[in-house]
Amino acid sequence: MKDRLFKIVLFLASFLILLLTAGIVYALISQSLRTFSEIGFFKFLTSDSWNPKTDKYGALSFISGTLMTSVLALAFCVLFSLPVALFNGEYFRGKKISTVVSSIVDLLAGIPSIVYGLWGFYVVCPVLVDLGFSDTGFGVLLASIVLAIMIIPYASSLSAEFISMVPNELKEAAYSLGATRLEVVTRVSLPAAGSGILTSYILALGRALGETMAVTMLIGNTNAIPTGITGTGNTMASIIANQFGEADGLKLSSLIAIGLLLFLITAVINFIAKYSMKLINKA
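Now predict its structure.
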C-alpha cells in the first residue's frame, strides 16, 4: 500500500512538471501570436530593427548579443574551470587545499547576480577602460567576463565530480603500463569523464544564456547588433528586463516573442547536449 502511494506521489510530481512546462509554452506562444501574425516569424527573426515609435520590431540584434556574450563567456569559463576541476577532482582530491578551493567555488555560485553586476560596474569596467579596450568599458567583453566568472562555479564543480568518479582501476592500469600522471589525466580521466564534463558546460551555457541582471548593467543596452567584442548591445534577457515594465500592445507581444525564442534556443542547446552525450557514450 505504501509503495503504491509512493508511486502515485511520484507520478503526480512528474505530471505537475509536465503541466507547468506546457503552461509556460502555451502562455509564450499565445501572447506572441500578434507579433508573428503582424510582422511574420522569419521577418521578426531576421530583422535588427527595434523602434517603438514606428512599431517595428525584430529580434536579430538581441539574438546576436545573447549568442556573442554566452559563447565568449563559455570560452573564458573553459580556460579557468577545467584547471580548477582537475585541481579538485584529480590532483588534490581529498586534501585540505581542495576542500578550501571547493568551498570558495561553492560560495561564488551562491552570490546573487546583482552583486556580480555591481562588481563588474565598479571594478572590471574601469580596468577595461584603463587597458584601452573601449572608451566606456561597457559592452560584450565586459558582460562576457562577468558572465564567465558567474558560470565557472557550475562548470568546475560538476566537472570535478565527474572526474573524481572515474574508476581507480582504469588509472591504476594505465600507471602499471608506465603512463605518467599527465598521460593518465589526458588519456584516461578526461575521456572517461567526457560526457559529464560536456554536460556541465552545457548547463553553464544555459545559465549564461538566461542571465539578466548582471548583463543588463554591463552590456551597454543599445538596440543594435554588437560591432565586435568591445561593442555595446543588448541580450534577449536584458531587453525584456529593460522594457517589459512600460510595454503594451505590439511591443509587449514582441518582448514575449523574444522570451519564446530564448526558450527555444535553450531547448535546442539542451537537445544538442543530450545527443552529443549519446554519441560520446557510444564511442
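The two ends are 44 Å apart (CA to CA).
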